[in-house]
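Could you join me in thinking about how sequence relates to backbone shape in a protein? We need material for that, and I hope you will provide a protein of your own picking. Once you have written the record down, we can walk along the chain together:

…
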Amino acid sequence: MSSGLYERPKIRVVGDRGLLVEYGDTIDPVVNKKVLSMAIGLEHDAPAGMIEIIPSYRSLLIVYDPSVTTTAFLQESLSSLEKRLLEIEIPPPQTVEIPVCYAGEFGPDIEFVAEHNGLTADEVIRLHSEPEYQIFMIGFSPGFPYLGGLPKELHTPRLKTPRTQVLVGSVGIANEQTGIYPVTSPGGWQLIGRTPLKLFDLERSNPFLYQAGDRIKFKPISPEEYRRLAEKGIN
């Protein structure tokens, strides 16, 4: 087990009702595991005055009510929880398969990603769809998964000028990360494909298909399969 699990966190006050707790300065599965463990511990045994917990790759943002608690009390609660960290059980991750139609109209930037890395478009598809990606955090827009584990051969910089509109379901690459746009929104990631799967749907009992800590496996599909699944309205 990495010693990073036991490093002292950096704690910063954010505004008049936020406490940012940083457990590392890199994208690291061990650091992210600690973030998830602390988030679960705080949810199960919430300190008085805590309103919300927002986990990220390497940190937790604790939103609190300053009329009920103080940053000193919250830090004491965090220290107490850290002593019990190894007792906290993280639920086993589920693996969610995401069908993706790569290239063409669905992935307008795949040729750039290929050229940037000295690959063919088919090699980009193979490399991108081989791993199981860990969801390190969810943010930016409802259900946007930031995924760790993108092969180094696919690392590609963001667009110099972001698009004003990225279609729902688009799969993109930005530097060492890959992710999926669950709703239509602006965005600056290199788009290599699109999924017909509804990642975020308010009509479901659980609007999200996954949570932080789960894994995603991409499955290449044809344009015909994409359209068939889109017409079927899979979710």
